[in-house]
Write a structure and sequence with these properties.
Largest sheet: 11 strands, mixed
Order of helices and strands: HHHEEEHEHEHEHEEHEHEHEEHE
Structural class: alpha/beta
Number of strands: 13
Strand content: 15-25%
Radius of gyration: 19 Å
Number of helices: 11
């Protein structure tokens, strides 16, 4: 098929609970950004987004709980102890965390996630989740982005009040990270077998990744029954091994979003982009991320502020310009 024929086929196919074949995903990822086919790819993905979501958009709010050197030393992460960027330890205390959760909830954030370094105490997180549930009312969902764990721990986290887990098999896992890919996969499958929901993006996408690698992870997100897929760009952090490799363009990130939207179709109706751009939203993303606290994509700990000054009002403004309305729940406002 030509690119335009494939886009038309993918648009029709995406309205079903079925996935595009690997070779079709690679062909769509190979379209030249800025070309007529690229523009039609984005338009098709946006039409599919309209049909699958009813133009409902959602916000994801991340809270980096601890800013501390991490012994896993991933090549893209500012917290790797070998890089010497995170030389001090800074933690959100319980009151700071509750304040930020409350702010997110009051601003209509649907998914609020506490993010920690690899070896942060899960028992402490369990206590924090229980306290948040008691002190911050609202219709938000709460989740964790933490280290590896098994099915027993997944079930225990759900009992603590956790709704979802963010976890991924990263692009370049085992090459740009010090993790065994199978260990990451074991955690993904533990979440899948538990009552917890899974959010799994294709990330961190850089110029160093091939279309084949991106297609592999895209299909894996659906195979793991993620409720949200999408893509996150690798942010070059000076001083890290990948810090001199440029960030992918907004056009390329939007293309990956559009392909993910068409590839996963009705199987994964919510597609997230990070960092958020209006172009990616026009190419099919209906979820974007707001961050505070420790940021592994930067050298700072944003205490109280938002990373890159990207907050809920800004995200809502971009979604509105792309034709969406932000809601806090899937059912109502």
């Amino acid at each position: 098929m030509t690119d335009l024929e494939l886009i038309a086929y993918a648009e029709q196919h995406a309205q079903q609970d079925a996935l595009l074949p690997h070779e079709h995903i690679i062909q769509l990822l190979s379209i030249e950004p800025g070309s007529d086919a690229w523009r039609e790819l984005g338009a098709a993905a946006r039409r599919v987004s309209h049909k699958l979501t009813g133009d409902r958009a959602y916000l994801w709010g991340a809270i980096g709980v601890d800013f501390a050197p991490c012994s896993m030393n991933c090549d893209f992460c500012s917290l790797g102890e070998k890089w010497g960027i995170a030389t001090e330890t800074r933690e959100y205390d319980e009151e700071e965390t509750i304040r930020q959760v409350r702010e997110y909830a009051e601003n209509g954030v649907r998914w609020i996630v506490l993010r920690t370094t690899e070896f942060y105490s899960k028992e402490r997180l369990g206590d924090m989740i229980r306290t948040i549930r008691t002190r911050v009312p609202g219709r938000y969902e709460i989740g964790l982005n933490i280290g590896e764990f098994d099915l027993t721990t997944a079930n225990w986290l759900h009992q603590c009040g956790v709704d979802f887990i963010y976890h991924s098999l990263r692009l370049g896992e085992g090459r740009d990270t010090r993790f065994e890919p199978q260990v990451r996969m074991d955690t993904l499958r533990a979440v899948q077998q538990s009552p917890l929901k899974l959010v799994f993006l294709v990330e961190p996408v850089g110029i160093e990744h091939t279309n084949e690698e991106i297609a592999d992870i895209c299909l894996l997100t659906a195979d793991c029954n993620a409720i949200v897929s999408g893509a996150m760009a690798r942010i070059p952090v000076p001083g890290t091994p990948l810090g001199n490799h440029p960030q992918i363009s907004d056009e390329r990130l939007a293309q990956i979003i559009a392909v993910t939207r068409l590839a996963c179709g009705a199987h994964v109706p919510d597609i997230c982009v990070h960092p958020g751009t209006q172009l990616a939203m026009e190419f099919g993303a209906n979820v974007t991320v707001i961050e505070t606290g420790s940021i592994p994509r930067d050298v700072c700990c944003c205490s109280g502020g938002k990373w890159n000054q990207f907050d809920a009002p800004k995200a809502k403004q971009l979604f509105a310009a792309a034709g969406y309305t932000v809601h806090q729940t899937a059912e109502g406002d």
